[in-house]
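S1.2 Input.
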Amino acid sequence: MIRSFVRGSGSALPANLVTNAQLADQVDTSDEWIVERTGIKQRYIADEGETTSTLATQAAQKALADAGVDAKDIDLIVLATATPDNTFPATATKVQHALGCNGCIAFDVAAVCSGFLYALATADSMLRSGMAKRALVIGAETFSRILDWEDRTTCVLFGDGAGAILIEAEETDDPAAGVISTKLHADGAQHDLLYVDGGPSTTQTVGHLRMKGREVFRHAVVNLAEVLGEVVENAGVSIEQIDWVVPHQANKRILDATARKLGIDPEKVIVTVDQHANTSAASVPLAFDVARKDGRIKSGDMVMFEAMGGGFTWGASLVQM
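S1.3 Output.
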């Protein structure tokens, strides 16, 4: 069988680090309030000249270097983002050109915070079908550009950044190798709980993020626990066999509640929300790269990715390194 194997990873953050204390000088909030409710201590905010495509390109370059692969050998780029550089063309094509691999397949995926999971599933399917051999799967966001900086309930939650992985198709007889199992879901009935109040077809504006946090929290814990269970059952493994969970970094309380619901050891959960805040589609690959580079995630480890975002969309993917 053909399976997709992770060969490298990379990440990128803007230069501008903003602490809770600095944010409290601009918004009616405090470090204590933010940490208690979210676990966030700081975030990175893109300056002028830093865009979703520039951050995505940096992360992709690091993933290529980590894998020891030349950009010209990439057949596919799938970029997950809710904050593209332009309405069109796809931001992935700007990354493609910046990397120097013109001619390969390149497109964006829009599933907000679940975007990286949707992008990974798409790229994995294309590799398994033989349409491509090597793919860059990227999550990149500049969410600071769509925040209402007068809304203290939302503007403190998000940051900017990018993460990327390089996956390669390879034949194997091992059913528990590479990308093993992925499950994706969506529920458009929950649109009004987390959305942006603008768009080309409706208001002809970019708009601002709007969220009903308490309702999102409740749905997140239930949906994420259920989809992780689905993936584990489909893969034929137990929760105890999972070495690491790399979740969407939305809120430390959501991470803790989901782990408790599933009986997962909190020490197995990769947490970067305190350092990066919620970087939407970038959060899973960004956290994954951090944990790989600091030596926690090693070759042979069983890793579960999971995320939920606006739409609602949610999903999980089990991968053996």
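S1.4 Remarks. Residues 213-235 form the longest helix (23 residues).
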